Amino acid sequence: MFTISKQFHFSASHQLHGLAADHPCSRLHGHNYICEVVLQSDTLNSVGFVRDYRELSDLKNYIDDELDHRHLNDVLGENNTTAELMAKHLYDWSHARWSEVVAVRISETPKTWAEYRP
Ligand SMILES: Nc1nc2c(c(=O)[nH]1)N=C([C@H](O)[C@H](O)COP(=O)(O)OP(=O)(O)OP(=O)(O)O)CN2
Ligand SMILES: [Zn+2]
């Protein structure tokens, strides 16, 4: 099995709901996010790629246009904007385009990662 991944960086604000009132993440705040998309395949194309990293540029465009420097609560509607749910959102978006996508990981801080892998 071959595994490749690529990271996409963006900055955005959010506010989590359902937490204790004194939880800092109940307040409006922001992160420098990293989205890492993971692709796997048993086979390689004629060049030797699972998929050309450059073919993932539509995800970069989506992140730049729809998520970067935006308020994620507005983008995701009523949904909470936890890292777990952001990973699921970006997995669904990516897997619909590239069948080799098996997981998406989201980092909000240098110490944290959340992964969605069905
Ligand atoms: N399982 C999850 N826990 C938390 C999430 C999340 O998305 N999933 N999100 C947050 C906050 O939005 C934010 O990520 C803060 O995280 P935290 O680790 O508390 O960040 P700090 O820099 O304040 O942590 P330190 O321990 O002070 O370094 C919270 N939890
Ligand atoms: Zn946060």
TrEMBL record:
GO molecular function: 6-carboxytetrahydropterin synthase activity; metal ion binding
Cofactor note: Binds 1 zinc ion per subunit.
Keyword Lipoprotein: no
Catalytic function, reaction form: 7,8-dihydroneopterin 3'-triphosphate + H2O = 6-carboxy-5,6,7,8-tetrahydropterin + triphosphate + acetaldehyde + 2 H(+)
Names of required cofactors: Zn(2+)
Function description: Catalyzes the conversion of 7,8-dihydroneopterin triphosphate (H2NTP) to 6-carboxy-5,6,7,8-tetrahydropterin (CPH4) and acetaldehyde.
Name this polypeptide is given: 6-carboxy-5,6,7,8-tetrahydropterin synthase
